[in-house]
Model the fold of this input.
Amino acid sequence: MTLVHEVDIKTSPDKIWDFLVNIEKNYSAWHPNDHILFKWTNGKPFETGSAFYAEQYMMGEKVNYKGKIRESIVDEKITMTFSFPLSLIIEKIEMIIENKGAYSIFKHITYMKFKFLSRTIFKKRNIKMLNDMDIHVTTEGGNMKKILEKEY
Done:
């Protein structure tokens, strides 16, 4: 199962990449209501093999998680995975930047482990989690658009 979100942003791919590379500084602005902290724990921002730690609210609860960058193509694509317990639910996240001339498309794709979700006894909680994730990532896309188009 995948959750796919796209937003057209009137900016260049390198501006989106710059926003992401400076995520430690931009994390709170990206989602002021939910994002608390993001920091790199190993390696350089969004380089393959780099590791990170983040804190945010999910479903009204503060969540701490760690992850790694599995693939990084400058101005084009980032693939990340997460450590336990988030790894039980999310296989990976891809952020893809497509150049469309005067604007760019930013895609955020979450690959869910649906078999795990459908087998658990907390099915109602899973539906709420998916809905909250959908709202969260949609908000991130809208906020990125506002921030970057304001700078454009």
Remarks:
- The helical segments are 13-21, 23-30, 114-119, 123-151.
- The chain has one domain: 2-151.
- The chain has a mean pLDDT of 91.
- Residues 123-151 form the longest helix (29 residues).
